[in-house]
Structures are given as C-alpha cells and as structure tokens.
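Reminder to self: tokens first, then the designed residues, so the page reads top to bottom the way the pipeline ran.
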C-alpha cells in the first residue's frame, strides 16, 4: 500500500473507534502524527469544528515548543483537490478573531472563547502563532504564493502560515513512524575532491559533498529505515515551513544549483566508513541518518531530473556508541529535541521494556513508532484485534498523573523526564505500576465521552472536560483506588487480572466518580474568579484537587453501603469486615 492508502485506512479506523466524522477523524490523525499528541489530546484539540468556527478546525497550545497551532483541516476524498484562496484567507484572519474572546462568546461559541483566552494569554508569554491549512491533496502555487506573502509581512510578529498538502503529510508520517535497525552497508557517491577527514576524541569523521542522485538512490533502496536513530519529530519551524522551503528549491530549476548553500546538510552516524577516493565513493557500515530526515525524504521523492543538479553537504561520524546520543541531541539543536525523545533510549526505559515483555501475558513497550509493525512475532502480544502494546510517552504521562502530577502530565510533560524524573521514574518503578497507571487512564478515556453526553447542557463542564480531563481523572482515580483497596493493591492483585472484564468495569466506576468530582472542583475554582488555563498549568492545582478528594472521601465514608456501590473494591482484594 502507498502512503495515501495507509493514511486513509488509518483515518477510517479512527472514525470507527471514536464515532467521529471522517473530516474530524482526519484532523485527529494529523494532530497525532504532526504534533505528537496522544489520541485523547488530539480529539480534544480537534473539537472546534462547527457553526461560526471562523475556519478553526483545531487549536492547540504547544507548551513544549512555545507556540500556538491553529489549523484548518480539509479531508478531500480525491487527492486532486485543494482548498480555495478564500478558505486560506479565513485561516489567516483567525489571529484577529481570537484576539476578542467576548465576541466569540456573543456568537454562541464558548469553546472558542475559552481558546481565545488561552491564545491571548499564551501570546502574552511570547508564544508564536503557527497557522496551518492541512489537506490530502495536490499543492497549489496560488496557496503557496499567498502563504509566502503573509509570512514576509508578519515575520516580525512571530506569526506564520504553513500549507500542508499530501506530500507534506507523507513527510510528517515518515518521521513520526521511524523504523528499527541501522542499515548494515551502503555506498555514497561523492563529488570529486570535495571531502576531507577529521579525527578527534569522538572518533573518525568525514565531510563531503554528495550528489542528489546518490541520496535518491539510497532512499529508493532503504526508505524510512534510514532514520532509525533520528529521534526528532518532523515539526514545522516557528518561522514558516522548513519542508516547504526544501521543496520550493528542488522544484525551481534556476534555484536548484544553490541547494548546497541553502541547506544545513545531513549527519550520518556509523560504526565505520571507508573512503574510496579513486572510485569517488564512501562505503558505510552500520549507519543511520540522525539529522536531515526532511532533506533526504524530499530528495528521495523527487524526480531524477529534479535531483540531477542538486548537491548536499554530508557529515559522517564513526563514533563510539556512548557518544551517539550526544551527537543526535546536538545536531538536532535547531529544532529542539523533546526530553522524552531522548529518554526513550535510556537504560530505565529499556529495563521497563524487558520487564513488560517478561510478564506472563507479555506487553510490547513501543518506545519508537513503527517498532511493533516491524516485529515478526506480533502474535506473542495478543490477537490482532487486541494487541498488548503500551505506547510511549503517553504511558509515562499516565504514570505521572497516577503519582499525583496531573498538571505536569497534561501541560508540562517535559518536566516528567527532567525535574520530576526521580519521582515518576525512579530505579524502583516497576512494569506493573506502569501498566496499572495506563489502564486507569484508559478507563478515564472510556468514561469521558459518556460524562460529556450527560453534562451536555453544562457549558462550563464541557470546557473543563475537553482540556486534559483524562489525566486529572487518572490522578483522582488512583487516589480513590488506594483509599479503597490499600496502597499495596498492586502487590495484592495478580497483574493478569488487568485483562478481566470485571476489573475494567470497576475501574470505569472509579473513573466516572473521578471525572464528576474533577468537574465540580474546577467549576468551584472558576466561580472564585480563577482562569481555566492558569489552573491547568499551575502545579498547586494538584494539591487543591487532592485536598478536595480527601474531603469528599471523608464524607462518603459516613455512608459505607453507598460508598461500596459507588466504589466497589477491586477483584482480588478481600472486602473489609463490617
């Protein structure tokens, strides 16, 4: 299957699993692969479509990269279509629309008004604005020209627009998925005499100019496998689209000869290399492209005619294994590597992977996208319709919420892997604890749509429930579970019970009460004049929620029979004697 077929099949699966329309399911798919959001975060961020939406189909404040993403997302059934200039113009006007929250509230869109308040607050903190028009269709020169004109005009305001047609989606997806295993051997042609070698404490290195035809040949042979150790997601830059700039140069016959000067080049880490100057080539052993995914993909997908005039700067480092992570980190510094991307490679995560795979019913810990798809023995992790796959980093976000840090899990997950790493991921954290946290979080997600329907008439509740409620409910559920089942409940319940329907139903009961209590407490805070965005971003909210839950549980214990109905003890835990 080609990329478009894979993409449309994935959208159909999301639509079936969530009950969303294809347009909204496509938005969820895009937000997952382009912004790295988990499923529920993507559903929440894509929930702005509808009447008076002012062209805003998705809204997300990216606190890691200090930007606000506003997207208009069109799901065309035929890839020959593209948005109109009028639709793009509507998107370009959204910063002005979001500058006036009250006007949106008057229009009957309290959700957009809340987003506008968050937008104004984030802009006040110096966040950039990234406008995106996304569609699975052909590029249009008119759209690109208007986008370039807009970006030039607004460069000083830190507002930019990016056109994301089918080809750009393909590149995002390639970087998102990754692959497994370095390439064993390959050969790169070099431009005659355009190379030099360097030796240092980092190992041996060589810098060379490589013709575009040689890189295209490498892509044709190995495709996405080239980027096994390129940990960085293909995110748009703050000042427009890197991908678009690469594509524009490749597509312009007059500008192609300047590609070498425009482009930052490619970095390859290898076990070793052999330079063959007489043959005009470099032979690579056990290698991976760790920086330059976008450049390589764009060249690889170009025509032979287009790449004929291209030359690219390539740096090859034959470095010891212990230096590979540092090379990856620093060569990707222009688009920051997120802390969890590097944490996926550390020894603690590798230990958890081994422990999860050694359970009686083994789980696969998916530290990188595409790893599970490359496995030959998938059946070991359950039947096709019910695989036991634990996704990273969202499983660690749920672990942080489980341990009482829902604010960090939702709005500042980078701190989970830095400031709070010793608390969330100490050497003693077990595979069982990670699994329990994930299952409690999944219960919150299952119940969330049900609670939304029940509180459909409560506008304030709807706003609260669409912004990270699954993480806050996980924290409250974990508190309730410990209260009712003992702090040692993980040791007392066989991990195999996590697959039981009865346990799942009881976790849902805990999640239901957790969500209702969460809405009540945050509603109370808002009635006191506090702002929702600030509450969800302030660590003191963790303590406020904990104190509220402790107070409510003290009341609930006065009616033990009612409490038993609301929060039954989990299977495997003996009931307390009256």
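Designed residues (578 positions):
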């Amino acid at each position: 299957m080609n990329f478009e077929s894979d993409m449309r099949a994935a959208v159909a699966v999301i639509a079936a699993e969530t009950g969303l329309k294809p347009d909204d399911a496509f938005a969820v798919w895009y937000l997952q692969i382009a912004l790295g959001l988990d499923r529920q975060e993507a559903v929440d961020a894509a929930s702005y479509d509808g009447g008076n939406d002012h062209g805003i189909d998705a809204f997300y404040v990216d606190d890691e990269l200090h930007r606000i993403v506003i997207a208009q997302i069109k799901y065309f059934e035929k890839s020959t279509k593209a948005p109109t200039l009028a639709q793009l113009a509507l998107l370009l006007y959204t910063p002005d629309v979001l500058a006036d929250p009250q006007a949106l509230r008057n229009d009957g869109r309290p959700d957009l008004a809340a987003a506008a308040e968050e937008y104004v607050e984030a802009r006040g903190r110096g966040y950039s604005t990234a406008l995106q028009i996304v569609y699975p269709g052909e590029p249009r020169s008119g759209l690109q020209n208007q986008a370039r004109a807009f970006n030039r005009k607004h460069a000083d305001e830190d507002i930019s627009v990016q056109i994301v047609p089918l080809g750009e989606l393909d590149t995002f997806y390639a970087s998102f998925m990754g692959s497994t295993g370095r390439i064993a051997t390959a050969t790169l042609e070099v431009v005659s005499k355009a190379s030099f070698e360097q030796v240092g404490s980092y190992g041996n290195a060589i810098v060379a100019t490589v013709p575009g035809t040689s890189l295209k040949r490498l892509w044709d042979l190995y495709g996405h496998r080239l980027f096994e150790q390129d940990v960085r997601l293909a995110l748009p830059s703050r000042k427009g689209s890197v991908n678009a700039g690469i594509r524009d140069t490749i597509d312009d016959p007059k500008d192609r000869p300047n590609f070498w000067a425009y482009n930052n080049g490619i970095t390859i880490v290898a076990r070793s290399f052999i330079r063959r100057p007489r043959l005009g080539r470099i032979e690579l052993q056990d290698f991976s492209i760790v920086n330059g995914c976008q450049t390589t993909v764009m060249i690889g997908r170009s025509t032979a005619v287009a790449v004929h005039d291209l030359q690219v700067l390539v740096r090859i480092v034959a470095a010891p294994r212990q230096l590979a992570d540092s090379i990856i980190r620093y060569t990707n510094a222009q688009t920051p590597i997120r802390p969890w991307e590097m944490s996926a490679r550390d020894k603690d995560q590798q230990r958890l992977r081994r422990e999860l795979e050694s359970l009686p019913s083994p789980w696969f810990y998916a530290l990188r996208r595409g790893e599970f798809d490359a496995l030959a023995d998938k059946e070991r992790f359950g039947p096709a319709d019910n695989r036991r796959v634990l996704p990273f980093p969202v499983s660690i976000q749920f672990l942080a919420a489980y341990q009482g840090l829902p604010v960090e899990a939702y709005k500042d997950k980078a701190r989970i892997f830095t400031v709070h790493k010793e608390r969330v991921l100490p050497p003693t954290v077990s595979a069982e604890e990670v699994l329990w946290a994930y299952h409690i979080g999944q219960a919150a997600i299952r119940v969330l749509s049900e609670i939304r329907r029940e509180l459909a008439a409560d506008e304030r509740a709807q706003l609260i429930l669409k912004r990270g409620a699954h993480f806050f409910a996980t924290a409250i559920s974990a508190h309730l579970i410990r209260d009712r089942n003992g702090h040692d409940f993980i040791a007392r319940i066989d991990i195999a019970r996590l697959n039981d329907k009865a346990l799942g139903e009881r976790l849902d009961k805990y999640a239901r009460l957790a969500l209702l209590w969460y809405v009540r407490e945050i509603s109370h805070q808002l009635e006191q004049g506090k702002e929702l965005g600030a509450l969800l971003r302030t660590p003191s909210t963790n303590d406020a929620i904990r104190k509220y839950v402790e107070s409510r549980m003290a009341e609930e214990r006065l009616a033990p029979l009612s409490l038993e109905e609301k929060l039954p003890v989990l299977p495997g835990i003996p009931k307390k004697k009256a």
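The chain has 28 helices and twelve strands.
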